[in-house]
Structures are given as structure tokens and as C-alpha cells.
Design goal:
The chain contains 17 helices and 26 strands. It is an alpha/beta fold. Strands 9, 10, 11, 12, 13, 14, 15, 16 and 17 form a nine-stranded mixed beta sheet that branches. Strands 3, 4, 5, 7 and 8 form a five-stranded antiparallel beta sheet that branches. Keywords: Membrane, Signal, Transmembrane, Transmembrane helix.
């Protein structure tokens, strides 16, 4: 086992040496050597056996150090409360917090370290050698860690590197529970054709060594343990597209319109460095999606609204966007056979109090306690949602100089907080919501995160809605300061999203083929009102606007053609125009007239089905009650009357020439009849006179 561990650490040496995820806390004064503790087992102080430490030591200075030894240390006085634990986690890494173990066999002799050199270590320390044991020590949480001592070129020997963490000592048979919420969140942006932007960034993130790749592996490592996943479904849709070579938006069953793929056709603005998507990247995307969806089908899933919306802003300015986001999320989860509980969980943990009225009943509202520990974490709201205050202290991670949210540091902080909380008798589980952009780090596998949390006094449970009728209703305030309100997205982004939603509705009503246009384009629209958009509101707004312009151009291929001047002789007649479907998809479209005079009426063309590329002539019945010139606009419309496409605008001249001719003819006819009658009468009279 020790040999296998050494091999694993050696394999990770290049990654560990250069990884920012395991770098020293930048707020702390740097030491010449960096001690990376990547494995410590067990997670809680055992009654017998050994405590094993493993990791690497790197000389990050420009000087050589000789006779370097790595000594474990442990405090002899426990941390008794969670407040004390929080203070300890924020303490100066240089603070002396424990007794260093210096007897032979208790430390590792590393020898000399040249500048830039990294070595591995493994120390198996018998529990009986520790200053505190389960038999003699007081229950609580203790400091534990490693000190690197070495000698510089001046012969001075001192501590030149350290790693610190916590270890709980638990006594008694009382058990406690905790719920771990693992977020699957990432900003999704798409170009005007609907392709995922920045495929190189995505490919790097989805690789086994990338943030999302590590996160997927971490989730899978939970196995049958009851981890809770918090998923933005737009991330799943984005990865699904990436594994299919990032196709553009499809309008239906036919081939999508041919537009150059940025991953295949580099340009001055879209280089390969931004848009890489190689076969290995496709395989990584496929593997990641399979891993996460498989885990989601067997774990409790809290489903965020599609694109992780800015709930506080939308609840006040455009609540219908929240409903749309929830609807799209349900569609994606349903397509993947994932049973998800609708959830609202702002990445920063803040929510405007009035937003609760706009959130669907029976949703899970997951907020942060912002470091103010609460005795009870689970509540019901007055508007019938489950309200949970996640524990901000436990999620903040371990002490420096180690990266606080490194998998091992986070594990030890959670188990230590759980041990101290169990002594208070607080109801329900300790709820820990990991940071929104959490990266398990390159050595997460060595931490044995879930395995080491399997103890006889701590149970991992899913975070689900409360079925306990005694769960109280939360009547306190939801803190929401003015600076949080200023962070909300403004009306410009909301307007951009709404504009594309309107365009989407028109296009969706126009097309007859089987498609996912409504879902896909609405999802792109929601990118403008995502929490991620707060970082760059203008850019995301412009991108959504570009998509809207592209879709409007697509609608413009449905046209009404004709002349720009038409004369209508008489009071009624027909107008002949040509309706053109310039799309490669079948559509249902009608024509709606708009006339500039109330004295002219033109019959609408009822919606008719048209094949791809079809042209048809429409004859519209027209009536006019006066002479004059009127402007007419004939607009293509969907079945529900939404204007689309390219209208025909022309001038219509109406005249009464036809009526005048008929009057003249009628008058002439009457005159002729009168003249004939007079001639007949005169002839009859003359005849009678001759006879007489």
C-alpha cells in the first residue's frame, strides 16, 4: 500500500509542483519550502493504529537547504467551540500551535533540497506517540500538521515550511449527520449561430485534469454515499453539444444552415487557441456527461433554473423569466431522466427578501448563513418553500498556508465542524454547500474524501425537502444590503433577453418540423440574465443581441413580394401577391394586411402550410368606398398572429371610373329607349291620321 501511494504521489509530482490549487495562501508570508499534505488518514483521531501523512515538499526558493527533516506536530489543548475553530482557521500560518515530534521514527529525513527540487514523503505515526490520545485527551478538535526544518547556507536551522489542518477527537456514542451539496456550475455562452463559445476553455475544464473533469471524478467517487448535487442544466446541454462537435442551432429535421464552425475555420478573431475541439476533447466531454448524468440519476439533485438566473433581479423586474428558466430546466432534466427538485441557490448566498413571493412553492431555497452560525439550518417559508441556510464556516475550508478548499483541507474542516456541532444538539444535518466554482484540486483522489468520512459517528445524508410537520416557519429577515442590490443585473440585460424570447416564440410558431428551437433559443436568451452575466453584463447582452439579429434575419426569409404601386378600378377587386418561404424548413404562415385608410379593407390570408423554398400566389379580396391613394403593408404572420419576415409595402390607388362608365351606359340606354318609344308613338299617330 505504501509503495502504491508513493507511486501515485510521484505521478502527480509535476502537477502538484505547479498547481495554483495547492499553492500557499497568498495572504501568508511565503516560506522557502512548500509542504503539500495531500493525504492524511484517518480523518478523526483513532484509538489505536497509526496516523498516516503523505504528500510532497518543494524548494521554491533560489537557495539550497540541507538536512531537511519533516516533523509532525499536534496541539495538546482542544478547540472546544465552532467560534474558536473559525478563529483558528483564520490564524497566521506562522503561529506556533502544537508540539513538534522529534524522536527517531516520528519524522521523515528528506536530505538536501536544491532550488526547484520536489520530493515525496510518507510518515506513519503511531497513535501512542501523539501528545493526545482518545484515552487521555479531551473531546474536541486539535491542530495537526507538519513542520519542515532545514539548514541554510549560513548554518541557520529553522522552520522553512509547514502544512496545517485539524483533526477531531470524538468520544461517546452520539451520532450526527451532514449534507454535502456539490455544485455543477459554469458560465455558458453561445455565438449567434447557437454554438458554444470558447471550446478550448471548455475542453481544458472537462479534461480529467481540469476543474469540471476533477469535479466529475469527485462526484463519481461518492459511489452509493448520499451526496447532493446542485446542477445548472444549461451546463449539461452545453457539454452534450460539445461531444457532438458543437453544432449550430438546428431549425428542424433538415440539415442546419451552413455557417463556418469556429472550431474548424479559424479567423483573425477566433483562433484555435480559443476554439480547440479535438477527438480527445470530444471523448472527454462524452465521458464527463455520462459520469455526471449517471451520478445524478442515483443521487438527490437540486435543479437550478436554466442558465443559473439572477433571481433577485428577475423576481422584481421580470418574473416571467424565472418561470421560463424553471420550465427549460425541467425539460433538460426530463430529457436526461434526472429527477430534480427545483432550487434557488444564488452563488453568493444572498437573496432579496421579496423574491420568495416569486419562487414556486415546494422549491428548495438554499442560502448561505454568511458565516453567522445558526442553531437550526432548515426551515419552511411563509410562501411554502423549503429554506436552508448552508453553513458558511464549514464551507470556507481549512487553515493556511494550504489552499483552504483543497479536498483534504475541506474534508478536515467539515468533519471538525460536524464534531463540534454534534455537541450542541442542533437539529438536522450540518448543511455544507461547496463554493460555486469549487475545484477539488489535482490531488483530490489521494484525499479519499468520502471514504474517510465514513465513521461510526458521522452519517452523510441527502439534502431534501423537510417532511417533518414540526419544522418551523422562518419569520426572521433575509439580510440583503444595498451593495447586493447594486450587483443585480439591470433592465438592459433583461430587455435583451426578453427580445430574443419574443423572437423565439415567433420562430417556434412558424416552423412545422420537429425541433428544439424554443428550448435552445430561450436558453441562449437566459444567458443575458444569468448570475454569471454580472461579471460582464455588456458582453453577454451583446451576444444575445447578435443571436436575436441572426434569428430575425432567418425570419426575414419569409417574404411577401409584389409591385410597389397598385390601382384598383371600381369599388372592389383582388390583389395578387406572392408569398415566399425562403427557409429550408416547412412552415405555416399567413398574411395580415395593414391599411392606412378606414375606407379600404383587404381580406387577410389564412395561415397555410408551405414546403421548403415554396412560392405561392395569394389573391386578396379588396374593397374601397372612396377615391384616393392609400399605403398598404402586407405582413407574414404566424398562426397566432405574430408578425414575422419581410413585409410588402405599396401604394394602392382606388378610383370610381368603372361606376361612372356604367352610369353613362345606363343613361344612354335609357335615352335610347325613350327615343325609340317616341318614334314608335309618332309612327302610330301618323298611321292613324292617314287612315282618317
Amino acid at each position: 500500500m505504501a509503495g502504491l501511494l508513493a507511486l501515485l504521489i510521484a505521478t502527480l509530482l509535476p502537477v502538484l509542483a505547479g498547481s495554483p490549487a495547492l499553492a500557499a495562501d497568498p495572504a501568508a508570508e511565503a516560506t522557502p519550502l512548500t509542504v503539500r499534505l495531500v493525504r492524511m488518514t484517518p480523518a478523526a483521531l483513532p484509538s489505536k493504529g497509526k496516523v498516516v501523512f503523505a504528500g510532497t515538499v518543494s524548494n521554491d526558493s533560489e537557495s539550497a537547504y540541507t538536512a531537511v527533516n519533516l516533523h509532525p506536530f499536534m496541539s495538546s489543548t482542544p478547540i472546544r467551540t465552532r467560534a474558536e475553530l473559525a478563529t483558528a482557521a483564520d490564524s497566521d500560518p506562522a503561529t506556533d500551535v502544537g508540539t513538534r515530534l522529534v524522536e527517531p521514527g516520528q519524522f521523515a529525513a528528506l536530505g538536501d533540497l536544491a532550488p526547484g527540487q520536489t520530493v515525496t514523503f510518507r510518515i506513519a505515526l503511531p497513535v501512542k506517540d501523539l501528545p493526545v490520545t482518545t484515552g487521555t485527551g479531551e473531546a474536541g478538535v486539535y491542530w495537526i500538521g507538519l513542520h519542515a526544518l532545514g539548514q541554510d547556507h549560513n548554518g541557520v536551522r529553522e522552520v522553512i515550511g509547514r502544512a496545517r489542518t485539524f483533526i477531531p477527537l470524538v468520544k461517546g456514542s452520539r451520532t450526527t449527520t451532514f449534507a454535502l451539496v456539490v455544485p455543477v456550475r459554469e458560465q455558458v455562452r453561445r455565438d449567434a449561430d447557437g454554438r458554444v463559445l470558447g471550446t478550448t476553455r471548455w475542453s481544458d475544464a472537462l479534461a480529467p485534469t481540469g476543474r469540471l473533469g476533477r469535479l466529475g471524478g469527485f462526484i463519481a467517487s461518492a459511489g452509493g454515499r448520499a451526496a447532493t448535487l446542485l446542477i445548472d442544466p444549461s451546463v449539461l446541454d452545453a457539454v452534450a453539444d460539445l461531444k457532438e462537435k458543437n453544432p449550430p442551432l438546428s431549425l428542424g429535421d433538415g440539415e442546419p444552415e451552413e455557417t463556418p464552425s469556429p472550431s474548424a475555420t479559424p479567423s483573425p478573431n477566433l483562433s484555435r487557441s480559443v476554439n480547440r475541439l479535438d477527438p480527445a476533447d470530444l471523448a472527454n466531454a462524452d465521458a464527463w456527461l455520462s459520469t455526471v448524468t449517471a451520478a445524478a440519476r442515483t443521487h438527490t439533485v437540486l435543479g437550478l433554473g436554466y442558465a443559473d438566473p439572477d433571481v433577485s433581479a428577475l423576481s422584481r423586474r421580470r418574473p416571467s423569466m424565472l418561470e421560463l428558466s424553471t420550465k427549460l430546466a425541467a425539460t433538460t432534466f426530463g430529457n436526461l431522466d434526472i429527477a430534480a427538485v427545483p432550487a434557488v441557490a444564488p452563488a453568493d448566498g444572498w437573496l432579496a427578501p421579496d423574491a420568495l413571493e416569486r419562487i414556486a412553492p415546494e422549491s428548495m431555497v438554499l442560502l448561505s448563513d454568511q458565516g453567522r452560525t445558526r442553531y437550526r439550518q432548515q426551515w419552511r417559508t411563509g410562501t411554502d418553500q423549503d429554506l436552508v441556510f448552508a453553513d458558511g464556516q464549514a464551507a470556507s475550508g481549512g487553515p493556511g498556508p494550504t489552499e483552504p478548499t483543497d479536498a483534504l483541507a475541506l474534508r478536515q474542516r467539515i468533519i471538525s465542524d460536524a464534531a463540534l456541532r454534534s455537541r450542541t444538539g442542533a437539529p438536522g444535518p450540518l448543511v455544507v454547500d461547496l463554493p460555486a466554482n469549487w475545484d477539488p484540486g489535482p490531488a483530490w483522489q489521494l484525499a479519499d474524501f468520502f471514504t474517510e468520512l465514513d465513521t461510526d459517528w458521522l452519517d452523510l445524508v441527502p439534502l431534501s425537502g423537510s417532511t417533518d410537520l414540526s419544522t418551523p416557519t422562518y419569520t426572521g429577515d433575509l439580510p440583503y444590503a444595498a451593495d447586493q442590490r447594486r450587483e443585480e443585473l439591470g433592465t438592459a440585460n433583461i430587455s435583451a433577453a426578453r427580445t430574443l424570447v419574443v423572437t423565439t416564440s415567433a420562430l417556434n410558431n412558424l416552423l412545422r418540423s420537429k425541433n428544439t428551437v424554443g428550448h435552445d433559443l430561450s436558453g441562449i436568451a437566459l444567458n443575458a440574465v444569468s448570475l454569471h452575466a454580472r461579471r460582464d453584463a455588456r458582453s453577454t447582452r451583446d451576444q444575445v443581441g447578435a443571436t436575436n439579429a441572426r434569428m430575425r434575419a432567418t425570419l426575414g426569409k419569409v417574404q411577401v413580394l409584389g409591385t410597389d404601386f397598385v390601382t384598383l378600378s371600381g369599388g372592389s377587386g383582388t390583389l395578387a401577391v406572392t408569398l415566399v418561404n425562403g427557409l429550408d424548413q416547412p412552415i405555416t404562415v399567413g398574411v395580415e394586411p395593414r391599411v392606412g385608410s378606414a375606407d379600404v379593407t383587404i381580406e387577410s390570408a389564412k395561415p397555410l402550410e408551405m414546403a421548403p423554398g415554396q412560392r405561392t400566389v395569394l389573391r386578396l379580396k379588396t374593397e374601397a368606398s372612396r377615391i384616393g391613394v392609400t399605403q398598404v403593408v402586407l405582413t407574414p404572420v404566424t398562426e397566432n398572429g405574430t408578425a414575422i419576415g419581410s413585409p410588402l409595402t405599396f401604394s394602392l390607388r382606388t378610383s370610381q371610373v368603372g361606376k361612372l362608365i356604367w352610369i353613362i351606359l345606363l343613361a344612354g340606354g335609357l335615352l335610347l329607349i325613350v327615343m325609340i318609344a317616341r318614334r314608335i308613338r309618332r309612327a302610330v299617330r301618323d298611321h292613324h291620321w292617314r287612315r282618317a
